[in-house]
Structures are given as C-alpha cells and as structure tokens.
Design a protein that fits this description.
Blueprint (H helix, E strand, L loop, with lengths): L9 E6 L10 E6 L2 H11 L5 E5 L1 E3 L5 E3 L2 E12 L5 E16 L8 E5 L18 H15 L5 H6 L2 H11 L4 H9 L3 H18 L7
Parallel strand pairs: 1-3
Antiparallel strand pairs: 1-8, 2-7, 3-6, 4-5, 6-7, 7-8
Helix pairs in contact: 2-6, 4-6, 5-6
Length: 212
C-alpha cells in the first residue's frame, strides 16, 4: 500500500472519455497506441507505478481540455499479446486535482497534481450509513429491465456498500459528464445519491415511471 507521503507530485496521464476509475476499484485497459506503450514502460521503472486516469472535455471554443479532477491507479497487472499490445489492470489509489501539464520529451501527457482533499481515498473502505439497500436494488432492477440489461443479482446482493456503488458507477452506461460527477462526489453517500439521480433520469428518459 502506498502511503500519502509517497504519492508523487508528477504523474503520467491517460485521457480517456467515459472511463471511470475510483479508489479501491480495478480498471482493465487495452493499451496499443505507441505513446501509451511508452508510458507503460516508463511507469514500470517508477516506485509507485501510478497512472492518472482523467477525462477530456470540450472547452468554450470547442478545443479539448482536461477535467480538473482524475483518479490515479497503480499498475498491478499486465499481459502482453503476440502482436505487442498489453492488457493491463489499474488498481484505484486516490483522486487528484490537476495543477499544470508538464512540458517535456515524452510522447504522452504528464502533469503536476495535488492530492490535497482526497486523504479519505487512501484510508479504509467507506461505508454508506444511510444506504437503503432494498430500495436501491428495487430501483436497480427496474432500471436493468428498462435498459434490457442482464445482471448477476447474487453478486450484487452480497457486495459491500462501497464495492456495489463504485462498481455500478464505473460499469453502467452513462455520459462522460455523468461519470465525472460520480468521480467528484466527495463521499460514498454523495456518490450513491448522484447515482440514484442519474438512474432515475435515465428511466424517465425511456418513459419509465419512477415509483417512490
């Protein structure tokens, strides 16, 4: 486990729209672009092996910018394919706030980041003390039905609060802006409330009546 004092001030960035990484979750990635293959090689040489996942967004003039907040993951697994590509796994460590992009000679982005305000991410598993699991699973069941999605209900029922809420935040089909809102939620309770709002909105958009 990486201690807060060991978190580096500068990390490589992997901008990927719609890809959400949260603390204490795992994100599989398929790496094949030459610049990101170089990023992996450089990452493996560092002590922390951190890569910052961050979502791009459009600025006022239509230019591409980066969101202010991302999440760093530690490279914990990878395998190489016969054609030189990599299947890797990032284990979510902590969110960060983008300070400034670092100019240099790497083909990929690097940035100075701040970890301030995200100490909770490196702590213990969060608990949602206000979580009404039966009501949440009922809403989830109606959402899956409206979307025509299959689900392993036994796994959902047995999952701890944090794993359930964070996994759904990562996996459910939502717009990048919605994923960013879930990432920036300060606490697990806030993330669950945001997730419920997004699910209810998606169901209303599909003509589904929300029962209170």
């Amino acid at each position: 486990m990486i201690k807060p004092a060991e978190m580096p001030a500068t990390i490589p960035l992997f901008p990927l729209p719609g890809a959400l990484l949260l603390p204490r979750t795992r994100l599989p990635l398929h790496i094949f672009e030459p610049r990101y293959l170089q990023m992996l090689e450089d990452c493996m040489k560092t002590k922390t092996r951190l890569i910052g996942m961050i979502q791009p967004r459009q600025g006022p003039g239509g230019e591409e910018r980066l969101n202010a907040i991302g999440c760093a993951g530690r490279l914990t697994g990878f395998s190489e394919t016969e054609d030189g590509r990599y299947m890797v796994t990032l284990s979510g460590m902590s969110r960060f706030r983008l300070q400034r992009e670092v100019q240099g000679f790497t083909p990929y982005l690097r940035a100075d980041v701040s970890w301030e305000g995200f100490a909770r991410d490196l702590g213990r598993v969060e608990v949602d003390s206000c979580f009404d699991r039966p009501a949440f699973l009922d809403l989830l069941g109606r959402y899956f039905t409206s979307q025509g999605l299959d689900v392993d209900w036994e796994t959902l029922r047995q999952a701890e609060d944090e794993l359930l809420i964070n996994s759904l935040s990562m996996l459910l089909p939502m717009d990048p802006e919605d994923k960013q809102a879930l990432l920036e939620a300060p606490t697990l309770t806030n993330r669950r409330e945001t997730l419920v709002t997004l699910i209810e909105f998606a169901m209303l958009g599909g003509g589904e009546e929300i029962l209170q």
